[in-house]
């Protein structure tokens, strides 16, 4: 009987040790995953401790601006606060105060052979030609019923930004992010709709020749705005970056 009680105590001790380890892993900084999202960095980022499969590969990669910036992105889980587009302010606000809304600024930058509507202070793009980076095809843009054939994409989607840091910003920061030319591209409308709010592990441009530039732009945006990535997102970015480590980061 005494031996049986001793065995029970040993089993109880093992269970207690296992439970303690689980609690430490889940909730204590430096042990594992921070399930409550408590502050662990100067950027108020709920860090996910540990390394993904891509980290060793990145460590062995050549030292370049692209690789170093990707390695430096903090890794954490998504914020759980509900997302709303309204949190980023009115769409295409004239944040640079040049008299033109952001959508037309990007159309003017990315399209060729453009014409403008008269009496719009040279702002409203009436037509032009886009060499779409996402599909590699040429698209004729004409303002009117066919306008949605060319859309302006947030390369780091607003929903992704919200879940990886922007939920902590004030309204002005989110408005400026939503209109940052670094994060905006004129693209094929259907491709943009297909992407929606996807991150790199969920969607990449069908045009494989543009994937390096696409991921480099995402890394540049996340670096500029102190956004984090999930481990799956970082792994997907690394898969692309390791094929083109010399890809320049856009400014």
- Principal-axis shape equals globular
Sketch the topology as an H/E string, one letter per element: HHHHEEEEHHEHHH
Q: What structural class do you assign from the helix and strand content? A: alpha+beta
Could you tell me the mean pLDDT? 86
Q: Work out the number of β strands.
A: 5
Short description, anyone?
The chain has 251 residues and is of the alpha+beta class.
Structure notes:
With 251 residues, the protein is of the alpha+beta class. Helix content is 39%, strand content 11%. 30% of the residues are buried.
Reconstruct the topology from this structure:
Layout: H1 2-27, H2 53-60, H3 65-72, H4 102-110, E1 112-116, E2 125-131, E3 138-142, E4 150-154, H5 158-163, H6 171-178, E5 184-188, H7 189-195, H8 211-224, H9 231-241
Antiparallel strand pairs: 1-2, 2-3, 4-5
Helix pairs in contact: 2-9, 3-8
Key terms:
3-stranded antiparallel beta sheet, 251 residues
């Amino acid at each position: 009987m005494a031996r049986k009680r001793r065995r029970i105590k040993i089993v109880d001790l093992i269970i207690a040790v296992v439970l303690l380890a689980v609690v430490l892993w889940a909730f204590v900084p430096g042990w594992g995953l921070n399930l409550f999202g408590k502050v662990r960095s100067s950027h108020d980022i709920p860090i996910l401790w540990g390394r993904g499969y891509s980290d060793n590969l990145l460590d062995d990669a050549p030292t370049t601006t692209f690789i170093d910036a990707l390695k430096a992105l903090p890794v954490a889980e998504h914020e759980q606060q509900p997302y709303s587009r309204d949190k980023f302010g009115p769409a295409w606000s004239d944040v640079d105060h040049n008299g033109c809304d952001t959508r037309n600024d990007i159309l003017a930058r990315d399209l060729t052979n453009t014409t403008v509507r008269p009496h719009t202070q040279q702002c409203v793009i009436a037509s032009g030609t886009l060499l779409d980076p996402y599909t590699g095809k040429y698209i004729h843009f004409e303002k009117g019923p066919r306008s949605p054939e060319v859309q302006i994409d947030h390369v780091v989607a607003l929903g992704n930004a919200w879940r990886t840091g922007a939920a902590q910003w004030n309204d002005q920061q989110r408005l400026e992010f939503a209109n940052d030319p670094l994060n905006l591209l004129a693209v094929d409308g259907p491709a943009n709709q297909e992407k929606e709010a996807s991150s790199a592990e969920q969607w990449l441009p069908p045009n494989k020749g543009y994937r390096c530039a696409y991921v480099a732009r995402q890394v540049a945006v996340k670096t500029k705005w102190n956004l984090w990535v999930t481990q799956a997102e970082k792994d997907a970015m690394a898969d692309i970056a390791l094929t083109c480590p010399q890809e320049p980061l856009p400014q």
